[in-house]
Amino acid sequence: LQSETSDKSSAESDSETEVEQVSVYRKLLATLKTSPESESEEEEDESDSEEAGESETEMDSEGSQETGEAGGGEEDKNDVLDQEEATDTAEQTLAQEQADGGDTSCDPSHGVIEEFTDVKHESEFSLETNFMEEESGDCNADKRESTSSQAFSEDPFKQHMDKELEEKEVEKMSTLPKTSSQSKWPRLGQLTFSSTLEKCKTLKADKEVDVKQLYLHKPLESTWPKVNKQFLSSANKPSDPSFTPLQRELFCIMNTYRDLFYPERNALTNGEEIRHAYCLHALNHVLKANAQVLSNNAKRRDQKPGTDNDDYRDQGLTRPKVLMIVPFRECALRIVHIFISLLEVNDKRKIDVSNKKRFKGEFGSDPEEKPPNLKRPEDYEAVFAGNIDDHFRIGVAILQKSMRLYAPFYSSDIIIASPLGMRTIIGAEGEKKRDFDFLSSIEILVIDQADIYLMQNWEHVLHLMKHINLLPRDSHGVDFSRVRMLNLNNWSKYYRQTLLFSALQDPQINSVFNKHCFNYVGQVAVRNVPLSGSISHVVVQLPHVFRRLEAENVTSVIDTRFQFFIDKVLPEYRDAIMSHTLIYVPSYFDYVRLRNYFKKEELNFTHICEYTKKAGVCRARRFFLKGEKQFLLFTERFHFYKRYTIKGIRNLIFYELPTYSHFYSEICNMMKATDNGVDATWTCTVLYSKYDAQKLAAVVGIDRTAQMLQSKKNVHLFVTGEN
């Protein structure tokens, strides 16, 4: 993996110095957003003869049938060598890493020209040299709080940050297992509360929330109801006018500073609701933290010379407090817009936002870029809206009535970035130009749309988690007399709150939540089980055969599945009568392995992966539709980023259950796209093991999953098409 990361980083550093890389990457972007995809979409709607004609023309121009079959696959050949050298786990991440290098999924700015940072407003936004503005009302609020010490101590921010852990408590958290308890909430459903330090306290859902009791910092008390109005319905209770039921329960947990995992985020339905809720929490935290520093600045200024007071420990070792990980620039744009809306009390009191025009230019999108004739599912449109560049990072500084975009990281309060944006600045072991000290004092980590990182490169997320809340290598000009003891003791990770939002349950996402989150307050995970499963959305009459394979442990599943497939499943499909067989492969590593085996056995097949060129995709689809190729190997990441309809499927094999459960019904329903498919004998075979319980439940429902995992026999299900 070390060679992999160094190769990756050197490629990235080259791309930053060579301007040509930008144009190359923009060509890759075009496959998602501009005319080439439009042409492909038009091709789908053309008659078979027209489609064949176009594909033949492409074949003549590109070369022979053989080169067409391997179209765009030079990178694949490199992966074959890597596959043979690495361990199972390393192979998978390496293949994904290299897929990112030429991936049609990604967006231009891997070849960013030069990063802009705003150095002009440094003194204006400095926490060290500014004081609380009297006229802002914040100073009065601080005085009011100090007179009522009881009210002040009840503030969740103060309770969390002022708690002084003892050595034995830290040792407990490092060694003892967590205790957990269950609770059911009206909107979130089944919750699991877990903690190490004390017997797990089960939080009760607030049926109503009074904004004044949430300890929101000014001006959020007045701006939040207006900003959130778009999500509220007339059904909202008059006593609770500012939160939707989902937001109320999520914010109730966030405001206690527990870690939170919510795996039911949906870009179509609740995605923006959730984004607004965590933006409110993050901004509330930053405003309180900064107000405390500015207030203490004034007290220190007014105190008598020579007095040494240890009461002013109110900062971390570095300034950034909140890190927000989002997949695309569009997400960062929306977050900043929410921040601005929350800080603007009314139209007359606009806040000053530096570099706003540049930000809109770099993070916004041109509506005319998107061809009007693209037909994609609604969830695809929601996920890939706006600017979908996945390589970015931006610092945001907030001070009273002003916001500074593109602040240097060490002068920022909030950092908004993609996993790739973080990876390229964190760098790898041995690199001279790398930096992660700015992550040392992160107090709130938000990872939104975590499922998309499984389709980008999960290794970047793991790399980030390994470098967060470490002691900085340099002091970066910090005043150690103001640094909290928790930071000096290197206990920052025990105070960090992690908010993790995903569209699905996945072992890799669960692992980050369970192994990289150490919050002393504890954790809350939403653990609802699917009742029906996506199989109920299959509209074609189709027998589904679920074939169970037995693996000794999780690490042996990859090899066991491959052996099971070539020994038990593939022989049944070698006969010419079983033509038009699509093999759906979620893992890129498995795809490379299968492709190599099919070539070795000289099987009549074609293949499409996430970086097969457009001409190669057209040829593969035509060969498969006409029956010139018996098998089509098809990767999940290609489907995620393209969502083409593949015509001509008569036999379907899920080499592994899909990551997104709705892809199961989507792929099955592609069979109805074949005109002569009514009288055909269609089949669907699914390979699964006991380690696929979560994915299986999402496809067939929890009841069937329990039966299937208890029984070691193959399971036959028949969907009538009347669902």
From TrEMBL:
The keyword Phosphoprotein applies. Its main location: nucleus. Keywords: Developmental protein, Nucleus, Phosphoprotein. Component of the ribosomal small subunit processome for the biogenesis of ribosomes, functions in pre-ribosomal RNA (pre-rRNA) processing. Essential for embryonic development in part through the regulation of p53 pathway. Controls the expansion growth of digestive organs and liver. Also involved in the sympathetic neuronal development. Mediates, with CAPN3, the proteasome-independent degradation of p53/TP53. GO terms for biological process: maturation of SSU-rRNA from tricistronic rRNA transcript (SSU-rRNA, 5.8S rRNA, LSU-rRNA). This is U3 small nucleolar RNA-associated protein 25 homolog. Interacts with CAPN3; the interaction is required for CAPN3 translocation to the nucleolus. It is found in: Nucleus, Nucleolus. Residues 38-63 have a biased composition (Acidic residues). PANTHER family: ORF PROTEIN-RELATED, U3 SMALL NUCLEOLAR RNA-ASSOCIATED PROTEIN 25 HOMOLOG. The lineage of its organism: Eukaryota, Metazoa, Chordata, Craniata, Vertebrata. Residues 534-718 form the UTP25 C-terminal domain. Residues 257-524 form the UTP25 NTP hydrolase-like domain. Belongs to the UTP25 family. InterPro entries: P-loop_NTPase, UTP25, UTP25_C, UTP25_NTPase-like. The keyword Aminoacyl-tRNA synthetase does not apply. One of its GO terms (molecular function) is U3 snoRNA binding. Residues 1-159, 295-314 are annotated as: Disordered. GO terms for cellular component: small-subunit processome. Residues 1-11, 299-314 have a biased composition (Basic and acidic residues).
